[in-house]
Amino acid sequence: MDDALPGDRIHGFHGGLKLQHHKQTACQHPVERPPLPERLFIAMRQHQGETGRTLVETGEHVLKGQALTEAGDDFIVPEHAPTSGTIEGVIDYPAAMPPGSMRRTIVLVPDGEDRPAPRQPLEDWQERRADEIVDHLHRSGLAGLGGAMFPTAAKLRGGWSGLHTLILNGAECEPWIACDEMLMRERARDVVEGGLILAHAAGARQVVIAIEDRMGLVEEKLREARSALGAERRVRIRKVFTIYPEGGERQIIQALTGREVPHDGLPQDLGVVVHNVGTAAAARDAVVEGRPLVERIVTVTGPGIADPRNLLALVGTPFAHLVEAAGGYREGVTRLVLGGPMSGTALPSDEIPVTKGSNCVLALTREETAPTQPTLPCINCGECVRVCPARLLPQTLFKLVEAENYDDAADYDLADCIECGCCAAVCPSHIPLVDFYKHGKDELTRRRLDRRRAALAKRRYEAREERLERERQARRAKRQEREEKLKRSETDAKSEIQAAIERAKRKKEGGND
Amino acid sequence: MVSAILTLTALVLGIGALLLWLGRRLAPDEGSLVERINGILPQTQCAQCGYPGCRPYAQAVADGEADINQCPPGGEDGVKMLAELLGVEPKPLDETRGEHKPPMVAVIDEDRCIGCTLCIQACPVDAILGAQRQMHTVIEAECTGCELCIEPCPVDCIDLVAKDEPWRWPRPDPIPLKVREAAHG
Ligand code: SF4
Ligand code: SF4
Ligand code: SF4
Ligand code: SF4
Ligand code: SF4
């Protein structure tokens, strides 16, 4: 079994849901580029990690592809200018996650000329060391385009021994989202080439591109691209069952290998690493053309959008601008969601800008968001357990979090929940289960942080007590010494006088001699 | 000569005693009740409990001198955990000692600071940097927000501000009790 390569057979995974996929809605038109927005709002941190140092000043003119923030270690991903223009300032601007938060954002006013900075491709990448490619991708600002925005360099680096397969995830996780499907249709060759680059950088022998079983056209295109690149032997194309959340990292690995990533392990333990197909295309652009990551395909769709479509949007474009390019809103839009309907986040405003991880804007109307039935107590029906792809016990977790029994929830592996929403979707009591898990996870994070802070404070308090005690001891010792000295000098003085008297006496006696 | 020997002996004994004491301090018995209580306390070291720090308070609780509800930074959660550890009934926080606040941090207005070092002497966790007649700053990561430096500052240039905390998912509304009872009845 271990000798079988990922993709030899397609497997199922536990739980999951068959959902209506609604993908066709946005796939009627080819991917288009919307007109340039008036302003671009480039969040200074668009990845999991820390913010890089700003490299530009207010009023400065920048060229397309010029770095705006500095690259640091693998968790400090740089941002680049999506087009040429003038920096208007660095401000706090609303961000999608966490809801209601602000983030440092660079405001760029495009000059409409789209003048590029000199490009630095890595043309002979086949000859380069894996490390050089990883560094180049990092400098080009790559972070996972699948949504989680994990720094690409951090995922590639490490030279994992035994890593044999790079999985390109083209199975879109959720209904409505179609950006990856459109990308593979229109840029199949770039995706395959990007896959080969990423595989070289990760030290993997082969690439498996996983797509959904309903993506017939995509498969054809990928096959053509594969033969055009002469990579039939290194690239496999595999269809997985369309059962939500088949696009989840752990689920796609299980579907392809039949093995589960250990609960405290990494995909690399199974010899595989997963990247999104969008990341592959971006890697190809960075390496072959020397273009940093400054744009991505965003699906603008839903019953609340007049003319749903996929748009090639510059990073920093406000969502409102994309909605406009997709014909505007329809009547009765009640909610705007970033991501899909199952695990997306509600957007508080359409002024929020596109980031590297924005795959889809979904506008829902009254019909879909009508007040759900009142929440009822859990009836222990076990439906949620049946569908949980992470093999958790959702109702137990819910009860523990509701009772604020977070430590026990942690023992029941709350941290393994992927927030897919399957459990909440089937719950007959309409309990907003995922909200409880999100809160519970946050609470655990907070406690961990508090404990770390307390430990630091305790160490410093103890160190100070020691220092004070040392100082007290030192003072006491000094005082004692002084007293001793005083006493000694008294005795010394006495004996000196004595000696002088004796000397005098002797002299006298001698004088008498 | 004799006196010199005496001094040296005294010094050696003094240092020996200090080392012994330090050794005891550095390796406290982790499993002891005092340490376990101290492990629950938030280590803000603010003395609002009426003792000069968390460890002294832990000692007093272990000795049965102090009640379990005297630590405002620990909040109700802290009282609950102490009650659980000691096997007693939890009780509401003693509000007279102060209120439970979100995490705070001290900030010194460096333009107004006269460099008197009084705040350094007051800080229980050595979180303030500075020397005589030089402006002082608070190391944010190390400040516990205990407020002990506020009072001594002669020019009143230290402020307490809320710590920059990431946004957190709120606890969803509990499922209404009425419905619950109806379902059970
Ligand atoms: S949201 Fe979490 S608990 Fe619910 S089904 Fe998904 S993984 Fe399981
Ligand atoms: S599906 Fe809902 S009602 Fe059924 S066991 Fe799970 S939480 Fe309880
Ligand atoms: S009141 Fe302050 S000093 Fe006392 S135990 Fe609580 S945090 Fe520590
Ligand atoms: S800086 Fe002030 S508030 Fe912060 S720990 Fe020190 S004394 Fe307390
Ligand atoms: S007590 Fe006030 S004036 Fe004195 S050093 Fe501290 S901050 Fe400056």
Automatic annotation (TrEMBL), chain A:
Residue ranges, annotated region (Disordered): 467-513
Against Pfam families, the record matches this protein to:
Complex1_51K (PF01512), Fer4_7 (PF12838), RnfC_N (PF13375), SLBB (PF10531)
Q: How does it sit in the membrane?
A: Peripheral membrane protein
Q: Which SUPFAM superfamilies match?
A: alpha-helical ferredoxin, Nqo1 FMN-binding domain-like
Q: Any idea which positions bind [4Fe-4S] cluster 2?
A: 388, 417, 420, 423
Keyword Transmembrane among UniProt keywords: no
InterPro entries attached to this UniProt entry: 4Fe4S_Fe-S-bd, 4Fe4S_Fe_S_CS, Ion_transpt_RnfC/RsxC, Nuo51_FMN-bd, Nuo51_FMN-bd_sf, RnfC_N, Soluble_ligand-bd
Q: Which GO terms describe its cellular component?
A: plasma membrane
Give the matching Gene3D superfamilies: 3.30.70.20, NADH-ubiquinone oxidoreductase 51kDa subunit (3.40.50.11540)
Q: Which UniProt keywords apply?
A: 4Fe-4S, Cell inner membrane, Cell membrane, Electron transport, Iron, Iron-sulfur, Membrane, Metal-binding, Repeat, Translocase, Transport
Task: Identify the enzyme class.
Answer: translocase
Q: Which residues form the 4Fe-4S ferredoxin-type domain?
A: 368-398, 408-437
EC number(s) on file: 7.-.-.-
Q: Does the keyword Transport apply?
A: yes
Q: Where is the composition biased (Basic and acidic residues)?
A: 467-495
Could you tell me one molecular function GO term of this UniProt entry? metal ion binding
What is the free-text note on the cofactor?
A: Binds 2 [4Fe-4S] clusters per subunit.
Which residues make up the binding site for [4Fe-4S] cluster 1?
A: 378, 381, 384, 427
Could you tell me where the Basic residues compositional bias lies?
Answer: 504-513
Per its UniProt record, what NCBIfam families does this chain match?
PRK05035.1, rnfC
Q: Give the record's family classification.
A: Belongs to the 4Fe4S bacterial-type ferredoxin family. RnfC subfamily.
Oligomeric form and interacting partners: The complex is composed of six subunits: RnfA, RnfB, RnfC, RnfD, RnfE and RnfG.
| PANTHER family found in the cross-reference section | ION-TRANSLOCATING OXIDOREDUCTASE COMPLEX SUBUNIT C
Protein's recorded name: Ion-translocating oxidoreductase complex subunit C
UniProtKB/TrEMBL annotation, chain B:
- Provide one Gene Ontology cellular component: plasma membrane
The enzyme's first-digit EC class, named in words, is translocase
At the top level, the lineage of the source is Bacteria
Note on how the cofactor is bound: Binds 3 [4Fe-4S] clusters.
Names of the cofactor(s): [4Fe-4S] cluster
- Which Gene Ontology MF annotations are present? 4 iron, 4 sulfur cluster binding; electron transfer activity; metal ion binding
Annotated 4Fe-4S domain ranges read 29-88
Q: Where is this region: Hydrophobic?
A: 1-23
Q: Which Pfam families match?
A: Fer4_21, FeS
Q: Which residues bind [4Fe-4S] cluster 2?
A: 113, 116, 119, 153
Residues reported to bind [4Fe-4S] cluster 1: 46, 49, 54, 71
* Keyword annotations from UniProtKB, A to Z: 4Fe-4S, Cell inner membrane, Cell membrane, Electron transport, Iron, Iron-sulfur, Membrane, Metal-binding, Repeat, Translocase, Transport
Gene3D superfamilies on file: 3.30.70.20, Electron transport complex subunit B, putative Fe-S cluster
Domain (4Fe-4S ferredoxin-type) spans 104-133, 134-163
Q: Where does this protein reside within or beyond the cell?
A: Cell inner membrane
Record-level GO BP terms: electron transport chain
EC number of this enzyme: 7.-.-.-
User: Which residues of this UniProt protein bind [4Fe-4S] cluster 3?
Assistant: 123, 143, 146, 149
InterPro entries for this protein: 4Fe-4S_dom, 4Fe4S_Fe-S-bd, 4Fe4S_Fe_S_CS, Elect_transpt_cplx_RnfB/RsxB, RnfB/RsxB_Proteobac, RnfB_subfamily
Any idea what job this protein has? Part of a membrane-bound complex that couples electron transfer with translocation of ions across the membrane.
Subunit record text: The complex is composed of six subunits: RnfA, RnfB, RnfC, RnfD, RnfE and RnfG.
Family to which the UniProt record says this protein belongs = Belongs to the 4Fe4S bacterial-type ferredoxin family. RnfB subfamily.
Q: What is the official name of this protein in its record? A: Ion-translocating oxidoreductase complex subunit B
Name of the coding gene: rsxB
